[in-house]
Every structure is written in structure tokens, then in C-alpha cells.
Amino acid sequence: MAHTQKLSLLDAILININVMFGTGVLINTVNLAIIAGFLGFASYLLVALLMLPLIFSIAATLQRHPSGGFYTYAATDIHPSVGFLSAWSYFIGKLSSAALLIHIFTTTIKVIIPALDPIPSLAIDGALLVLFTWLNRYNLKTSTRITYGFIFCKFTPIVFAILSCCAFFTDWHIPAGSLLLTGIPSTIPLVLYAFVGFEVACSISNSIEDAQRNAPKAILYSFGIVVFITTLYQFLMFTTFGEELTQLPNFLGIFQVLLQRIMPDPGLFKAIMLKLFYIAGASSALGGSYGILFSNSWNLYTLAQHKHLPFSRLFTAFNKYQVPFACVLAEAVICSGYLLMTSGHQVTLQQMSVFGCTIAYLCSVIGLIVAHRDAQTSTRLVAWAALGSCALLLFSCIANFVSSGIIYLGFFLALIALGMILYLVTSITNSHLTNLKRH
Hints:
The chain has 439 residues and is an all-alpha fold. It has helices at residues 9-20, 24-36, 40-64, 70-77, 80-112, 121-137, 144-167, 184-195, 198-203, 211-241, 252-262, 268-305, 312-316, 325-342, 346-371, 378-404, 406-438. The protein is 77% helix and 0% strand.
């Protein structure tokens, strides 16, 4: 009998780190410095503490439903309507992240290739969406070598920044008036965006050797490493450059100030290094956006499979490459809506992504509480703690929307409402058809 090859603990940790660690760390650098000053690094620690019970809860839910997703978690333990809300919110939330990463790539590539500057950014965003939709039509996965290339591009700028800041330890300082404690609540959605993805890390737990003992270790060790790297990076960047960070227009300026400190005089090598860092950042964003669009369509497919969408047969139909292409097209339409509505605004798209994902986490946690309602177990206590974390995270998202642009909260809630209307319409229609068949 053939046995499925299991992941070692080290392999699982490396995979988890790759999933959790993304472009969010880079793009947060300047905004955290502006909003929280020196305390930007503390935001990572705070959100990490809030997420610990949530991570354990999602891991416990996966043990109950090893092959399930956000729809299954809530639909099984609560009601299909809650399962729909969970999966739909996650689906549209992740598409906000895909739209953001596409726009980050566009912004960066226009700096790398100045000849593209006259072309409107939204036009390039749209062209990329068309390209990704076309590639997804053929079920094209990134090869192992390309995946490793994206990992290299993801980590190189961060590692370089950390080592460079350590080399300039004599410049470390905390500027007066930079302890912006009141700004920390506003940073929570931005920091959470950098950590979203842990649910994928939890999902591979059953593929690990001696899963009962090693799976929790893999999740905790990898999460701890990611938290350590992100916290250290933000701490070192601010203590080295201080208020200089707050004067930068966006994260692309980080590479300029780093290289300026290392090589004050202009030169060809410095220019090449700067371009290489831009390419690494752009490649990381490109790989992240394609990965989301490639995998996220299956969340919509699941809803159609359970006949919760109009024209469910259309959304569950495969093309000859075994792709539910109608779901892929729906992704492109929603991503286009995000980009047109927000013009690719970073913080707004981050907040939308986090808001949608947190709703899915909340539904899953409530499902876990319901499943353990009659048992006085540690899992139940952890689930209640996770419920509190989700409530705080949601409150932070809503508060940020109110202060920065409530119209975008309305837009996202309208998308959720549209999904729930589709669910109600199809439920009534399916019920009516069932009654007709009986008679």
C-alpha cells in the first residue's frame, strides 16, 4: 500500500513561514512610523497576542473538519447561512488583498521602468488582471523553482534591511515625541494584514509527521518566527532612521534611505542595487496576487456547489483544464471594482481585506463554541478568548473605516449584503422547487 509522504517538522515550519510572511511587512513600514512612531513595532506584538487564541481555535476547527473550509466550519456547526457569510466574506476579503498587491506591483514597476509612467496605473492594473484571468483559465500553477524565487524576493529586502540597521547601531535613537501610544489602535488592521494567512498554515497540520505532537509546534514556532522578524524589522528601521521614515511617500523610499546610508555617493552599483530591490518587491507582490486569484476561486465554487448562488451550474462547470472559469471571471470583476472604487489606496484595501477575513474567523470561532457548548474543555475556553479577539479586531476595523472613509465600509458591506441576498433568493427558489417535486 502506498503511503502519503509526510512533512517533517522543519519542512512544515518553513512552509508556514512562507505562507504567513508577505509583502504586508514592507508596505506597513512607513504607515506604522507615521501613525504610531517608535511604537509601531509594539503593534505587531499586540496583534500577535490577540491572534494566539484565534490560531489555536482555527487549528481545533481543522481537526474537526480536516478537509473543510470556511463554509464547512460554520455551516456544519451553526447553519448554512452562517457558512455562506463566512466563505463569502473571506472570498471578497482576499480579493481586496489581490487588488492591492496588483496595484503595488504596478506602482513599483513604473518606478523601475520610467517609460511606463505616462500610462494610468489603473490601466496597467486592468491589463494584469486580464493576464492573470487568462493564465488561471489554463490552471497554470507556479512551479517549485518559481515559488522559491518568490520566497527569495520576499525575504531578501527584509533581511538586508535588518542587517543594515544592525551595522548602523551607533545611529540608533528614539526621537522626542515619537511614542505615539494613541496611534496603536489605528495600526491594528494594518498589522493584522501582515499576519493574515495563518489559516492556510493551520490547514497543512494533518500532513505533518506525528501531527498530534508536531502540528501545534509547527504553527507556534513559525508564527513566533514571523512575529519576531516583523517586530525586529520595524523596531530597527525606526530606531535607525527615526522621523526620516515618516517623510517618505510610500514603502519604495525605504530602499533609497537604506542605500543612501550605506553608499552616500551616487554611482552605477548603487543604482543597480536600488533597481534589484524594487524588482524583488514587485516580484513578491506579483506572486502573492496570482497565488490568491489562483486559489480563492474555489471558495466561490464551494458556495455554488451547495447551490447558494444563482446559475450554480455555470459556476460549478469546469473547462477542459478543470477550472471553474466562471468563478475566475467573477474574481476579475470584483477585483476591478475594488481598484476602481479605491484607486488602489493601500490602507483602504488592507482594511477591507482584514475586515472580510476577520468575519470568516469570527463565524468559525462561533461554530467551535457551539460544537463544544456542552463540554468544559480547554478548547472551549480558547474559543471564547478567540471570540473576544475577533470582536476587538472587528471593532478596530470599523473604527478605522469611520475615521478614514466610511464610504468604503459601506461599499464592502454592500458586497456582503449582495451575497446574502443571493443566498436568500437561491434558498427560496430551491425550497420552492423541492416542494414542487414532492407534489
